Amino acid sequence: MNAPVLAATNLNTFYGPSHILRDVSFHVGPRETVSLLGRNGMGKTTLLRTLMGLVKPRSGAISLHGEEVTGARANAMARAGLALVPENRGIFPNLTVEENLIFAERAGRGGRRDWQRNKVYELFPRLAERRKNWGNQLSGGEQQMLTIGRALMSNPDIILVDEATEGLAPKVREDIWRTLRIIAGNGVAIVVVDKNLKDLLSLSDRHVILAKGAIVFNGTSEELRSDPELVHRWLGV
Ligand SMILES: Nc1ncnc2c1ncn2[C@@H]1O[C@H](COP(=O)(O)OP(=O)(O)OP(=O)(O)O)[C@@H](O)[C@H]1O
Ligand SMILES: [Mg+2]
To answer: For the chain, is the Cβ count within 10 Å smaller at the N or the C terminus?
Structure first.
């Protein structure tokens, strides 16, 4: 395999006295799409937040493009090529769609500016139509599209996507899956957390399952599909 873009080794993360992530080792290769699965409360969001530098691991190491970045803050992680699409969406309600995008704009590593507003509007024509609307006038699906668009405006090498389709109508979900595929096709590596196993099996190259903060499975779609007992044990479906 090519050298990983993102590599985490033996991460241990705590919230106060609670030991959440337990010796988690996780890597993402260039252009790879990896899904992160697990039941509620198993540590998926905590892993994304730890990778993004929003939570400091108590031990373990994180490297981006082979460079050690353990303990770096989120803004430094963003400069190093990582972007988070958070669960709570986090757009600015009092800025327009266009202003939300402009505000998030920055060059990627090596000054790369592949993603500009027009490209985001091409990906999400709905956002182009709504460009003068305030953040708080958007539907749930439009907010989610804007959150993804904002992440792309930082020209990341990897985006971490937390439950992007949650609470959305089936047709809007389909839109989100389709755009994640296009983003992957543009060479951006993706780590995606979601509850829809069927969609993840067709989107992702590899799947990692977390149970009680530890990794219990790391394998391909074929491996996961051929082991319904494993799927039932760790995901309850
Ligand atoms: N800020 C916090 N302070 C203390 N405990 C927390 C905090 N955030 C999460 N936890 C706990 O950490 C554990 C892992 O939570 P996390 O949100 O990472 O799980 P998750 O896999 O993303 O779950 P879900 O599928 O519900 O989103 C849970 O037991 C949760 O209660
Ligand atoms: Mg979560």
So the answer is: N
